[in-house]
Amino acid sequence: MGRGRPREFDPEMALDRVLPVFWRDGFEGASVQELAAAVGVSKPSLYAAYGNKEALFLAALERYLSAFAAGLVEQLESEPDGRAAVRQYLRDTVALYTDRSHPFGCLIVTAATTSDSAAVPAAVRSALCASMRKAATVIEERLRRAQRDGHLRENADVSAMAHYFHTVTSGLSVQAKAGTSRETMLLVVDEAMKSWAA
User: What sections of 65-120 are H helices per DSSP?
Assistant: First the structure.
């Protein structure tokens, strides 16, 4: 058709359709053909909206953070009891990672495991590393608040605990992708919480 033809797709809708592909396969594993097929358009049409695969991934990552990760952070910060907040955060993480309505695990962890490949643009690596650091920082800030509130012992190494809990969530992502049951992963959460001494 001639000029004035409307876009073949809604860019916002496109993000919702490519997100599961990146979530399942990471940046490098998701082919442009798969991404275009998920949206139901040609590669040129997809690139006309986003420019390239890198820009599309970064937009999908932002959608993931706002649509999924933000809810976990909100719960972590809203629960007044520090220990209960971290425990529920870990349990909610398990629920997210094992939700059958989307790929298992965490998009960030999945993509980060291959982000050192030469095929992964620096901007993508940087965004993934920043997201990982942010997640650990959010946990650390909540632990420091718990310490101030008297819910965590004064001599606790908050930084080490934050990295421990963040490492647990990363491991849970890998376990979820490997097919570990939600029930087993919740037992892991219970074990992890034993590190929170009274």
Answer: 70-78, 82-97, 107-112
User: pLDDT digit string (tens) for 95-129?
Assistant: 999 999 999 999 999 999 989 888 899 999 999 99
pLDDT confidence of residue 9: 60
**Alpha helix stretches (DSSP H) within 98-157:** 107-112, 122-148
- Cα-Cα end-to-end distance for the chain: 70
19 near 64, Cβ under 8 Å? Answer: yes
Dihedral sign from CA coordinates of 123, 125, 127, 133: negative
The dotted CATH code for 11-193 is 1.10.357.10
Token pair 């647990």: residue:
168
Q: Which whole-number Å values give the CA distances from 105 to 20, 68, 117, 180, in the listed order?
A: 11, 12, 21, 10
Q: Give pairs for 2-10: CB < 8 Å, separation 24+.
A: 7/45, 7/48, 7/49, 8/41, 8/42, 8/45, 9/39, 9/40, 9/41, 9/45, 9/49
Q: pLDDT tens digits for 42-98? A: 888 888 888 899 999 999 999 999 999 999 999 999 999 999 999 999 999 999 999
Supply 120's token pair.
Answer: 């992964």
- Contact indicator for 21, 86 with CB cutoff of 8 Å: no
Would you list the domain boundaries of the chain?
Answer: 11-193
* Of 36, 37, 24, 23, the residue nearest 69 (C-alpha): 23
